[in-house]
Amino acid sequence: MAKDVIKEHEYQELVKKTEPKPNLIKNGIGAFVVGGIICTIGQFFLSYFMQKGLKMQDASTITSIIMIFLGAFLTGLGVYDDIGKRAGAGSIVPITGFSNSIVSPAMEFKREGYVFGVGAKMFVIAGPVLVYGITTSVIVGILYYFFGR
Amino acid sequence: MMTKRIGTQTIKFQSPPSIISRASIVGPKEGQGPLKDYFDEILTDDYVGEKSWELAESKIFEKAVDLALKKVNLKPSDINYLFGGDLLNQIISSSFAARSMQIPFFGLYGACSTMAEALSLAAMMIDGGFADYTIAATSSHFSSAERQFRYPLELGNQRTPTSQWTVTGAGATILSKYGNGPYITYVTTGKVVDLGIKDANNMGAAMAPAAADTIINHFRDTGFSPTDYDLVVTGDLGRVGSDLLYEILAREGFDIKDIHMDCGLEIFDESQDIQAGGSGCGCSAVVLNGYLLSEMSKGLFNRIFFMATGALLSTTSTQQGESIPCIAHGVVIERFLN
Fold first, then answer.
1. Does B240 reach chain A within 8 Å, measured CB to CB?
2. How many domains does the structure of chain A reveal?
3. Among B198, B232, B228, which Cα is nearest to B306's?
4. Which domain holds residue B23?
């Protein structure tokens, strides 16, 4: 019936044409500013620890740990999702966003218990990133071993 | 035989059931929206003292039915049938509520169209002579729907401008063969319509063709036209879906723009950050039982076509890349019988 009034492909085109688009400029600015602030905070810690005499590698490990903590902490306070609403990729891409993607399902599924809730659901969003991230790094490592040296 | 059927999808009741009581309960966010004065109860705590969102939703379902019963001094044992549904897997909110209420229960799943589906069946039950009193009730809860259909609440992601916000709320309507209106006079049952939309974040676009289909068939079956109604109400097409509905109807020569109202657009205002509008079984249920029926009793509307729309997808079908089948059920509510 509806298909007699409007053809499927015609309707899909109409939808594509009329649907509101995300505001690229506003979202871009939000991501740029928030992402920049997060990275600046990270840089602050990195410089601070290096100034205290830590080696680059140790200082960046500690910085990562602090940033992961901050992401988890703000998620627990219920602030990170408000930041993410405006910042988009600006708060998803940094390591704080990775932390948020693990802590938020862990909090959400606590009612289902510590094993099947928290334990099983914790990586429901971050899982694919881990799987493909680790796989890619292994492949790159092998390539480097044979051709890179 | 079949004297009550008209056309292909419509029933005209011989002894139209009367709406004798109604109740609506909404969450805190809905309680800040433009319709806040129409609701019976606005929750201050959307957990309602329960330990999970699912139990909270079930509790408001039960509270809405209770409240509707209390308003007319009826007990659960006076009710012959409860028709109810919600969005959660295996409709646990309604079933858990029905467990404690002990009213003979038909559980329904029509996604966000469930309120109109429940009203249709509850009305048929009475007109058919199978019941004196029936209840139609539905619920939805933002937080239980988010965790089932989308992401954890605290995940910092961005909503697309076409996405909709699930309403926290429950509505219950009591129908009876006795009573002085408003009456349910016609029911047009929808068919599942799918024009190939796959974006689960754009349910308004997916549902608009189903809504158009039911409206067009309703007009064809009954011979009515938009001028016969004070209001054509859709459940939760939102901004995107409403515009698409006008576009499809225009091709058939119908213009409902001036008399159209979408529950999803009325329940929140722009400043509440809800993108394309509200949605959920509770959305049309609370707008009907809060705003619409109350304004009807005051005489603002005399004849409305209430049509709730539902997107019949699941997280599995979405992940498997299937398009979204949709449905819309309509009921005609009239203040007086001619």
1. yes
2. 1
3. B232
4. 5-176
